[in-house]
Amino acid sequence: MADNKNKPKQVGDTGHVWDGIRELTNPCPRWWLNALWLSGLIVIVYFVLYPSLPLINGSTKGLLGWTQIKEYKEDLARVEARRAPYEDKLSVMTVEQILADQEMLNYAIGSSKVLYGDNCAACHGTGGAPAEGAGYPNLTDDDWLFGGDVNEIAMSIANGRAGTMPAHQNILKVEEVDQLVQFVIDSSNGVASEAGWALYTAKGCFACHGADASGVKAMGSANLTDKIWRFSGDEEQIRHTILHGVNDASDKETRVALMPQWSERYAVMLEAIAYAIEDGEDPNEIDWDDELSGDEAERLTPIEIKKLAVYVHQFGGGE
Ligand code: HEC
Ligand code: HEC
User: Fold this and answer.
1) For 93, which of 54, 97, 116, 193 could close a Cys bridge (C-beta 3.0–4.6 Å)?
2) What is the per-residue pLDDT for 158?
């Protein structure tokens, strides 16, 4: 048994006894009492300095005049002051310039994570790889419908995209569909037969997928010669795409393949800049009052789209 320093026999008791155990009247330890007084003092000091007592409208203000919302606003202002020089620089940089500037690239990528999570991950998955079979394109591979150049990616985001593969169930015979499904499978393995190619050409598939079936960026048509699938390499899924197409209003079983538009305004601007460069003019000379009517829809700002374009480009599939 432990030594009882306070010699219980010499200490008074409260007169309570339970099962032969007496309750003594030892004073509390000094350190404990000091801590108690000190914490009481802290409460009083806090009460005087900070808002504490709830009243009907608000609370006592405290001598320091501190409020949570004020502290939040000060912090926010500090963050914005630190970001302002970067944001200003981004507003005049092209996406290629951002890619070539490591510091700006790091900043753009760092501030895109939340942006991407809020606006894109629901369809394209965190990190650009959607759930299998979800029907959204993977943004991390080297296979692009509309192009993996950073400008093309920016345009995909700004303007949105809509797939144009038509339904063929009323155009093709059942055997032709079977042969074309086989052609697509063979083509992805690099062993398509001559008869397959002939049918592919005769049925007009080449008009969108290209003479060599490797896809045409301007149309967003899928590459049919590789093993990266927009939808699936499964035989039944290929058949479904050929029979019902995508976004084909005349077919109830058509697939939905719509990328929302994030900024009509920025899409118009990107197009105007591209035309100016094509015509050998200086894009900085463009008269935006002339180009923009002012009522273009904008769900993300041009800076946000630039950030997302380099962010997506850095997923690994960028060209
Ligand atoms: C509602 C779902 C949805 C959301 C949200 C969405 N996308 Fe898309 N995105 C699509 C679909 C579907 C396509 C393919 C369109 C097609 O098949 O023609 C696509 C295509 C793309 C492409 C072109 C891919 C290629 O292969 O050329 C890029 C780049 C892209 N999205 C980036 C983004 C970014 C960045 C965001 C967030 C701002 C975003 N998407 C938000 C559904 C979505
Ligand atoms: C009017 C243009 C057009 C024509 C004609 C067309 N396609 Fe397509 N096809 C597309 C587009 C665009 C896509 C990509 C769908 C999307 O936007 O998601 C596609 C997608 C596909 C896919 C899906 C590939 C994958 O990776 O999952 C297959 C398979 C396909 N086409 C086969 C055919 C065949 C076979 C024919 C001829 C009978 C044909 N297409 C005719 C435009 C066309």
Assistant:
1) 97
2) 97
